[in-house]
């Protein structure tokens, strides 16, 4: 079943792959950060970003699983004067 929570989980897990596989977006040396070319510090930044996104996806997944396992309130019994089966 596709839910909004699961879509967000998927985006959190796919984003780092897209960012790293799209080499043309970061295959340059400028802007440098404390003397480190953009190519390198961009990839290092994605290590941290990926960690945060993976943690977020995990927390969302746990919350989703707890919600699915939670006992649902019992249904109200059908009343004899107007319920189903008439």
TrEMBL record:
Alphabetized UniProt keyword annotations: Membrane, Transmembrane, Transmembrane helix
Region of interest: Disordered: 65-86
InterPro entries hit by this protein: DUF3311 (IPR021741)
Entry's transmembrane regions: 7-27, 39-61
Superkingdom: Bacteria
Classification via PANTHER family: BSL5891 PROTEIN
Record-given protein name: DUF3311 domain-containing protein
Organism of provenance: Streptomyces ziwulingensis
